[in-house]
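Subject: for your reference before the review

Hello V.,

The reviewers asked for a structural picture of the protein, and I figured it would be easier to keep everything in one thread rather than splitting it across files. Below is the amino acid sequence we used in the manuscript, unchanged from the supplementary table.
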Amino acid sequence: MDPIGKKLLDIAQKELGYTEKGDGYTKFGEWYRKNVDGDHDEYFSTAPWCDMFLAWAADKADVTDQAGQFASTIEHAKWFKKNDAWGHDPEPGAIVFYDWNGSGDIDQVDHVGIVEKVDGHTLHTIEGNADGYKLMRKTRDMDDVVGFGYPSKIKVEAKYAPKHAAPAPTVDRIGSPVTSTQAQEQEHSAAPEHLPTQEVVLGGILAFVLCGTVALAAGRAAAAKAPTTPPIRVRKRGKHHRPSTPVALPADVTPADLDAADASTTLMPAISLAAAHEAEDREFWGRIAHLEEDKELDFWNTLHAELTDSEPARYATTPGFR
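And here is what came back from the structure prediction:
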């Protein structure tokens, strides 16, 4: 039996008896429309669904790379042929393609199913859209068979496997029970290598030191960027500002006393007329002292001195003369 086809059969057997709705709607066509067709065309929800059922089953079995995902039986058959997985020998698990006209032409394929059992020239199959409406078992002869597609013969590129992962199983071992020896080999290959205890401790210390260094550097950088002065400038109170609280008056002084003192303040007595004259003379002669060399000024100085010496009493006793 084809091992990949065996997985498809396991899925198909669980769906036996499924019947399309009155308008041709099936969950397989709806799934194909949403998940495979790039345009999400409504056509596929009610279209003939024999091959879309196989696409759905391949997705459920996780073998889409080997079984393909098609709605067209002709394109599906050509895909197997292109990948060197096409032949004419019946085999359980193989995908069988029919032409009801018996032409044997791959371009005339009408229907598709999965071979469940081979009995001479008689095929026992599971087919979607069988009799035009149902998922069911069918018995057919080889007269209408165009060919077979063998999913296990599709070459699939190996996927990346981790260094310590177990090797991927070969096709002939898919689905076979795992022996205790194989389980031990897989467990041993999947187990990571244990580092010596001393190296683990040293590695932890180095990681701790490195993290601390990075954190310290980040803290210093953040502190350097922090402003040293407040962003809002605050005016400090100067000496000319009034104090926040008024000065308290002595217990025996009231504001009325202060007002009465201001009203009774007297002006300083006027200075005598003679003292004022003398002050003005000193200011006047002090300002023109640098002009004493002038001849005209020297004459007036001499005249003034003579008058002062000859009539000292009259100048001193005559009020209002200057």
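For the response letter, the relevant points are probably these. The longest helix spans residues 197-225. Strands lie at 86-87, 95-98, 111-119, 122-130, 134-141, 145-149.

Happy to draft the paragraph if you're swamped.

O.
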